[in-house]
# Entry
Amino acid sequence: MTLLKDSWAALRRYTPARVGLGRTGVSLPTIQHLALQESLALARDAVQAEFEPDAISAELRAFGFETLTCESAAADRATYLRRPDLGRRLSPSSRAALESRRGPPLDLALVVADGLSATASRRHAAALLGALRDLLPAANWRLGPVVLVRQGRVAVGDEVGALLGANAVAVLIGERPGLSAADSLGAYVTWAPAVGRRDAERNCISNIRAEGLSSADAARTLAALLQAARAHQRTGVLLSAALAAGTPGGVATLTSGR
# Structure
């Protein structure tokens, strides 16, 4: 029996994408079918994983951050997945807790949320913020406590930033798992955060993970983005347009996020 040469093997060494999987009759080969089922299971587990604010808080305190744990208006995971709108707002008790903490204006509010992959937040958020702290001089950037939000979505940062009186907010959040990445973290920056901000008013750095953009590289990109946002006093498509036009301010290419 002569075995056919796998002409896709060389290409698969350079990408986690599922290319040239082969076939057995009209189906996938067993090994590829099992690998697909494993990836689906990892993605489902990431979506359902419990947020670990205490563990993240301990890591952040080691970097010198103060932390505060809050919850969104979604009471549990099932509600969070069915009602995206509730994940965008804080619970009444969390809103009151942040209102009581408001002091002098902040340059930047920092938020860590579980999003659709608490696994990503647990693995990468603290390292990213630790690296970012070294890139934002304390004399130039007044930071508030890192707010850890259970059942949070990107827009929950708008309310957090507004309640803390921050000029900008950066939200680190687990991205929707794919079949090649279940632990990808996203960082979303919004200038002048306020409830009702549109997605076009944010910028996003995505695919922060060991196999994608490292925490150190993401921190450098995020610091440059924050510097540009402050220089132009805007984010989102307006900031991207300003940078594309060649006006001074920092990073060369930014991506608008959801």
The chain is about 40% helix and 15% strand. The two ends are 53 Å apart (CA to CA).
